[in-house]
Amino acid sequence: MKQCFWIFLTLVGLELYGQQITFDTQKTFQTMHSFGASDCWSMAMIGKYYPESKKKQIAEWLFSQDSDPQGNPKGIGLSMWRFNIGAGSTEQGKSSKITNEWRRSESFLNSEGYDWEKQKGQQYFLAAAKQYQVPYTLGFLNSSPIQMTKNGLAIGSGRLGEWNFDSTKIDAWTNFITKVSQHFNFNYISPFNEPQWDWGPNKSGEASQEGTPITNSDIAWATKKLAEHFQRTNAKTRIVIPEAGQLNYLYDPKSNRPGQDGQIENFFQLESPNYVGNLSTVERVISGHSYFTTSPSSKLVSTRQELHKKAKAANIDFWQSEYCILGDNAGEITGNGVDLGMKTALYVAKVIHSDLNDGNASSWSWWLAVSANDYKDGLIYTFNGTHKGENDHNKFDADLYDSKTLWALGNYARFVRPGMKRIEASIQQPDCLITGFTDQKSIVLVLINSGNAFELHLGSKQEMKTYTTSATQNLSYHSVQNNRLPIPASSIMTIIFDSKFGTAF
Length: 505
Description:
This protein is an alpha/beta fold. It has two domains: 2-30 and 423-498, Golgi alpha-mannosidase II (Immunoglobulin-like); 33-418, TIM Barrel. It is 27% helix and 27% strand. It has 13 helices and 22 strands. The strands form three sheets. A ten-stranded antiparallel β-sheet has the order 20-19-22-17-16-15-2-1-18-21, covered by helices on one side. Strand 11, helix 11 and strand 12 (361-371) form a beta-alpha-beta unit. Helix 6 crosses helix 7 and helix 11 runs parallel beside helix 13 (404-413). The chain is globular, with a radius of gyration of 23 Å.
């Protein structure tokens, strides 16, 4: 079958100066689930205070699948929206020990019950996501509500692995998560976030955000309790764990986080005392964050290949659930300093490529959908003149800036839709990466060209649609109806055509 297919492919002529782009629709890998981003933390301010026109522009950029009259996408069509369920540090103000009010969060729970008017800024964008028919929503907790923590705060003690939670409140905890999940009809709930980090106070007694560490045994115990409650209440929401702070914690049982690593085997190996793979409300997914494992390229690839081996052996999917550029990345790129251009976009695209191809991720999510920081952590940025940062200058209104990273993510999110399968694909061109997908009707190829411009020569005329992100283009649409396809330098291009090699899809 493959030999005949390749002969047909050669006749169609996806050739590059005599070298082929090759792909095989019969050789498939993971089924794609979603591409997403989170509403931390700026959406609380933007959704509450910003002018309606700017809120609508942000929602369109993130969620829209519409195009302008010229065929250019208006947005990147995210298929997952992640909602931060707050713990109540906003109501505590400065006594929360979290110095930056942007990093505090309201809670739906109070002494009298539930107040669904809280987190209104975030609710605005959750409603917008649903209005744009984003297929999946996920609620995640950085901390349990302050009424249920040991120290009455939304931050940890600073001691490695110590979960800031009063275990006598487990029934209240499961009820809270169930109530919130049902109220907002979340498809998924992620009860723990980056359990390997301490999230405690610094020497001055202050902290940067809500959060708490937690051990594997505590995660398993709480997950079992939550799953039981979901079953009793017929909750439709699915539980996703454990949002590991680094991908190696998912597969390596001998890292620097004893009791918090080797999480694939801990949660999905039958012999493990922490096994939760038999719980009907737990999604057979292991989730983690791509931070600190992306440079150099050898580490990027090997980390994800090791992860895939363990996940495949456990018969579970992998979701890359949070990423932005942190640290110095072996000198390749630094997290400090906003970059709206292609350098960051190309680096992020390379990470996506490896997460999908080497790690077989079926879902991929970015961290901050909107950022006010002078940092490489946003898809969209909001600055008031020269003022950058999470401060009053940008709290009530500011200018909006779309980044090339936004549109680079769109090269995947907008066209690789839930249910598509990744297919085998390769290209013989220096500094160029390729990933292929199909839904049996169309073929989608995403090319990342970090090098010079080149031209793809088609052996015969082939109608295609292309969408290009480059220094001068944001998912710009072109219809290709001849046998030449130019690939710009430093660009990301999505190519779409009919799976039967007829007209473009």
